[in-house]
Amino acid sequence: MCRECLIKRFGPHLNLWKQRLGRVPDWVWECTELETLVLADNDLAEVSDRIGCLTKLRTLDLGHNQLADVPDSLGGLTSLIDFLYLHDNQLTSLPQSLAGLSRLRYLNISENGLDALPDCVCAMAGLVELRATDNQLASIPNSIGCLLRLRELHLRNNQLTSLPESIGSLENLRQIDLRGNPLKKLPGSLACLPRLEKLDLRWVDIPPCEWFGDLEARGCLVYR
After folding, report:
1. What is the CATH number for 182?
2. CA-CA distance, 137 to 120, in Å (whole number)?
3. Do residues 108 and 131 make contact, with C-beta atoms less than 8 angstroms apart?
4. Whole-structure pTM value
5. Count of structural domains, the chain
6. Among 83, 105, 107, which residue's Cα sits nearest to residue 172?
7. Residue 179, H or E segment
8. Which residue, 14, 23, 73, 191, has fewest beta-carbon neighbours within 10 Å?
9. Which domain range does residue 218 map to?
10. pLDDT truncated to tens, each residue of the chain (224 aa)?
């Protein structure tokens, strides 16, 4: 099918959700005008480097597949500014090239095999919402403090025993979900977050911090 025919048939949005593809058809990479591409729930074990040809993508959904990695070329999609879904795969790392997605606003890397938050994620300065639940995260890097636009941070069901003090730099943070982590302590810098509305510590066996009362006095809901 010629490129003009593809544009006429699909326009800027292509939804191939749950089509049992097994492999992404080559013609998809010819749809260079795409702004939205949904490939979720297709038993995909790999994605071609040719995804880098889709330079107008704003939203990409690769969730609910069997991906053990994603191609370096994904980091060149600098128009990817709305959503990137990589959840429910078999990822244990992410390519450093994804640091190039500096305008991306929403990233979901939940339900994978990550044991540390990748450095490239902390370079995505435009992130407003980050979901990294249900992994094996044992640590969060100090560079998390660079995500100054972040409003929601979801870290439920990981292996975190502590958080870096730099998390107190996230002055726009509204919600942080820490449920189901084996936390031993919390950084006092959390108390300094001026816009925090919800701190979720359910299923966390940790003594109350003296500054919980200060947060609650400001209207922040502290769930324990």
Report:
1. 3.80.10.10
2. 15
3. yes
4. 0.95
5. 1
6. 105
7. none
8. 23
9. 3-223
10. 455 555 556 689 999 999 999 999 999 999 999 999 999 999 999 999 999 999 999 999 999 999 999 999 999 999 999 999 999 999 999 999 999 999 999 999 999 999 999 999 999 999 999 999 999 999 999 999 999 999 999 999 999 999 999 999 999 999 999 999 999 999 999 999 999 999 999 999 999 999 999 999 999 999 99
